[in-house]
Design a protein that fits this description.
With 504 residues, this protein is α+β, with helices and mostly antiparallel strands. It has helices at residues 5-22, 27-34, 38-45, 53-63, 67-71, 80-87, 89-93, 103-112, 114-130, 135-149, 155-168, 174-189, 227-242, 260-277, 280-291, 298-308, 312-326, 374-387, 437-442, 476-503; strands at residues 191-194, 209-212, 217-221, 251-252, 332-340, 346-353, 395-403, 409-419, 422-434, 453-456.
Length: 504
């Protein structure tokens, strides 16, 4: 079993405290029986110290517990879930300090209320198993929480990016950026860039880049990348070097994740790349002008994206950094959907929710997302254009989405286009901003009459909207709730009738 020293100390401390409590010993009682000081015993129980063999023997005798049982990592039934968490790689790899949590204090809280808390932990573990929550899923969920708790804006990384831009005089033009960054990566960080090898072997078709460390380092890239994609990959590689990141992934997309630190470091390098390619100062000025337009202008929005990048996803991601920090529009969400050509199937592949868990959000229940969502509408439009051979530019849409049975309304902007290197798939990225007083002050065109206002819901299976033409599945859960309500009403009536008959 691979378990680190800290967790061994924590498990021993948990076990000692539990065994002491079962004997109804106070710390002073155990101190008197074992000859160990109260303060030392307290540090053991908190997982700060692990006693030497002779002291374990003294504790074993004092508690009348076999030595082997005391040092075993096996916990009793009510604390077993805690042991399972500690012995997993989750606590080992997840830097709890990012969330302001000290592991020993967390375990102390758990150990003080073992039955109720551990029942809850057991429930969480069971849910995770039933929903196939892998360690990798957990790491990415933790990263999202980390981003959300910081409004997805990281001052230090912004400063590093700005310093890099100033030191190397990086251009804001996409085509120039790629060439500039390539020269820096080669000359400053000792890289060779290879754009031929991948094209010679079909198995690399879905890989955009791969780094092989050496002297020199080699960056293999797909030859089919456009200037923006190429610039992002090179800027990200520079980010790993410039930020002095050692533990990192080497392929893009990531093929496997070994630890949370790798996921976090990959995010840091990606954030750095976005901040270098889409410089905050200039982009904020351009966004301010765009938001001040009297009416929604799709062409202007596409021109704004094209000024900085040909990657709509990179641009929309950058907005999630700047809208909360600079424009104080923190109640927003980001979604990325993928779809397969000529199939009514849509997959939510990335999401981020700032300030709260906004609708829509991911469902693990294999239900059908509401087809009225703008994210899905633009994907359908892309598909129609491709079938007619009329696709030229990314499809852009805007919509005010009002949630059924809710007061929430969001201004949504979505962009869709085919996925590079995967000709049978499309994707869309969307930003939704809560319509509140702050949005009304910052985005002048929010109530443009050209922007459709649509009532939407979460999934078809849970939607009570009548006569929905876009429905992709029956409202199973709504119908079940109605049936259950009628059954409860009938039982109540029957009970009441029986009571009246008995009294008469």
């Amino acid at each position: 079993m691979n378990i680190n020293e800290e967790n061994i100390r924590l498990i021993f401390g948990l076990k000692l405290k539990q065994l002491r409590s079962e004997k109804n010993f106070s710390l002073a009682d155990l101190s008197e029986r074992s000859g160990l000081s109260v303060s030392y015993l307290n540090e053991i129980e908190k997982g700060k110290k692990y006693p030497k063999g002779n002291k374990i023997s003294a504790l074993s005798n004092a508690l009348d517990i076999p030595y082997d049982k005391l040092v075993s990592l096996k916990l009793t039934k009510n604390l077993a879930p805690v042991g399972e968490l500690l012995q997993s790689k989750i606590f080992t790899d997840l830097p709890l300090e990012l969330f302001g949590i000290e592991l020993n204090k967390l375990i102390e809280i758990i150990s003080n209320a073992p039955e109720k808390v551990n029942a809850f932990i057991s429930t969480i573990i069971e849910i995770a198993r039933n929903y196939n929550l892998t360690q990798e899923n957990f790491y990415f969920a933790a990263l999202r929480s980390y981003q959300e708790s910081n409004d997805n804006y990281f001052e230090e990384l912004e400063g590093d990016a700005q310093k890099f831009i100033s030191n190397y005089t990086i251009s804001s033009r996409t085509a120039t950026q790629s060439k500039q960054l390539e020269k820096i990566l080669v000359s400053e960080f000792n890289y060779i860039i290879d754009e031929k090898t991948f094209s010679e072997t079909k198995i690399f078709d879905e890989i955009r880049s791969l780094v092989v460390k050496g002297n020199p380092n080699r960056l293999f890239m797909s030859a089919s990348l456009d200037d923006s994609q190429r610039a992002f990959i090179i800027a990200k590689e520079i980010g790993f070097c410039y930020l002095n990141i050692k533990l990192r992934p080497y392929s893009f997309p990531l093929l496997s994740v070994g630890s949370f630190e790798i996921v976090l470091n990959n995010f840091k390098a990606s954030y750095f790349a976005g901040a270098v390619l889409l410089s905050q100062e200039q982009l904020v000025k351009d966004l301010g002008k765009f938001f001040n337009l009297p009416s929604w202008d799709e062409e202007n929005f596409l021109q704004l994206i094209d000024k900085y990048t040909s990657s709509h996803e990179t641009f929309m991601h950058r907005l999630t950094n700047l809208l909360p920090k600079v424009f104080h529009l923190s109640n927003l969400f980001f979604l990325r959907f993928d779809s397969k050509q000529q199939k009514d199937e849509y997959y939510l592949t990335k999401e981020l929710h700032l300030a709260q868990l906004h609708n829509p959000h991911g469902s693990e229940m294999d239900e059908h997302y509401c087809r009225r969502w703008l994210s899905i509408k633009v994907l359908k439009e892309i598909e129609n254009l491709r079938l007619k051979n009329k696709f030229e530019l990314p499809v852009v849409g805007i919509q005010r989405s009002k949630y059924h049975d809710s007061e929430n309304e969001y201004l949504i902007i979505s962009v869709a286009r085919p996925i590079e290197n995967l000709p049978e798939r499309n994707n869309s990225v969307s930003i939704g901003i809560l319509v509140n007083n702050e949005l009304k002050k910052k985005i002048r065109f929010w109530d443009d009459e050209k922007i459709p206002v649509v009532t939407v819901n979460q999934t078809c299976e849970r939607c009570a909207i009548d006569h929905c033409r876009e429905r992709a599945a029956p409202p199973f859960f709504v119908e079940k709730e109605k049936k259950d309500a009628l059954l409860k009403e009938a039982i109540l009536k029957l009970t009441k009738d029986c009571s009246i008959n008995s009294s008469s």
